[in-house]
């Protein structure tokens, strides 16, 4: 079998319903206008001379990654798609030569790698999880996003047993209100990602303030490049930490794992380097008793399928981030759409990834903008008078009310 071509499908993934996202502070009218064109999904298909086509998905900076994919295509055409590891190394070396080993290079390699696994599964007539060593579990637990008690209770009524709230604005009051609403039989996580990021001193103080609420984890409490800061937080508080969505490949995730700076590693399913790399990341994490919960928050449904297969096959799978009602078009993009029952999704059994995109539906939503916009001033994420500075890190150490309910 030989690769004959690569096709890409870039779509504007609709205007997300802000009430369904952890970062729903952005829900003002101006914010909705800003968000309209910033979420894009990039799918690709690899064709072969035997009529088998594999599908993948990429994230990171979609229109830039789309260009990278087409630049990489000559390295793949004519190759046997079965040799996944060799092709991954070939792509990795090419991206390294151009200084693109971050999430752009990782995103391009991810979609290609995902499609190669899909081809191999289809050619052999087995699901991808079988190629990864078989099932450890046949259902995957999920969590959804909620920033308000009303949204949290609606999720709970659907049988989902875990939620994540977000934003650096007023986190203690937010978590307290959610815990009071859902009780103790529902897990709660909080995503503090910036910008603006908290300083390590602020993060230590905040995480200690969150201890009484028995959180599932605190995610991205400080800037991702501040590894020493993560150590300070680990030493200061007894709350599980999660991070890793902004890194790519085992090389990007290595220090978080080897230094045991997190309890949960969160490689992004669309830019971590593909199923090949995520399986290796999971193995590294297993050796350090770290759980894996792939980041899927802004991704489309093909990446979700890839995550389901991976989590089915690894022993340290924790939970999957799931947004299935943030945009009505999500369900129409993928065939079939995996349904959750009592907070669990059944692992697909069809050969390969077991899914396809509706190409005609995808074509109805051409890409708009390409990058995220700054958080609106009304979100409260920035201190008063600093929004237009677009700060990477901003201290809140003097705001006593920030750390109290």
TrEMBL record:
The keyword Isomerase applies. Residues 14-33 are annotated as: Disordered. GO terms for molecular function: isomerase activity; lyase activity. It comes from the Bacteria. SMART domains: MR_MLE. Residues 149-240 form the Mandelate racemase/muconate lactonizing enzyme C-terminal domain. InterPro entries: DgoD-like, Enolase-like_C_sf, Enolase-like_N, Enolase_C-like, Mandelate_racemase_C, Mandelate_racemase_N_dom. Keywords: Isomerase, Lyase. This is Isomerase.
């Amino acid at each position: 079998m030989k690769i004959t071509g690569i096709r890409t499908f870039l779509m504007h993934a609709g205007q997300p319903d802000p009430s369904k996202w952890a970062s729903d502070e952005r829900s003002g009218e101006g914010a909705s206008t800003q968000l309209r064109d910033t979420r894009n999904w990039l799918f690709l298909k690899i064709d072969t001379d035997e009529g088998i086509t594999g599908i993948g998905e990429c994230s990171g900076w979609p229109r830039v990654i789309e260009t990278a994919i087409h630049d990489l295509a000559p390295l793949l055409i004519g190759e046997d798609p079965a040799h996944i590891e060799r092709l991954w190394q070939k792509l990795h070396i090419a991206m390294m030569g151009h200084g693109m080993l971050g999430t752009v290079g990782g995103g391009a390699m991810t979609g290609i790698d995902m499609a190669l696994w899909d081809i191999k599964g289809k050619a052999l007539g087995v699901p991808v999880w079988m190629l990864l060593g078989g099932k450890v579990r046949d259902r995957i637990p999920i969590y959804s996003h909620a920033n308000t008690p009303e949204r949290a209770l609606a999720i709970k009524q659907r049988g989902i047993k875990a939620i994540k709230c977000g934003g650096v604005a007023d986190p203690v009051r937010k978590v307290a209100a959610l815990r009071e609403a859902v009780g103790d039989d529902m897990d709660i996580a909080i995503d503090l990602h910036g910008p603006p990021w908290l300083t390590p001193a602020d993060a230590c103080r905040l995480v200690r303030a969150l201890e009484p609420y028995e959180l599932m984890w605190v995610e991205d409490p400080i800037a991702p490049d501040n590894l020493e800061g993560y150590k300070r937080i680990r030493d200061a508080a007894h709350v599980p930490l999660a991070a890793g969505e902004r890194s790519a490949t085992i090389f990007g995730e290595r220090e978080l794992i080897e230094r045991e700076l997190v309890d949960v590693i969160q490689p992004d399913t669309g830019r971590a380097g593909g199923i090949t790399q995520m399986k290796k990341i999971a193995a590294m994490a297993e050796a350090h008793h770290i759980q894996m919960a792939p980041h899927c928050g802004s991704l489309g449904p093909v990446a979700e399928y890839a995550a389901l297969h991976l989590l089915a096959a690894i022993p340290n799978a924790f939970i999957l981030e799931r947004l299935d009602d943030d945009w009505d078009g999500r369900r129409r993009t993928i065939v079939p759409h995996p349904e959750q029952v009592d907070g669990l999704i059944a692992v697909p059994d069809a050969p390969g990834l077991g899914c396809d995109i509706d190409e005609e539906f995808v074509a109805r939503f051409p890409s708009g903008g390409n990058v995220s916009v700054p958080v609106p001033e009304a979100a409260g994420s920035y201190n008063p008078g600093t929004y237009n500075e677009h700060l990477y890190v901003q201290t809140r150490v003097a705001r006593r009310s920030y750390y109290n309910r």
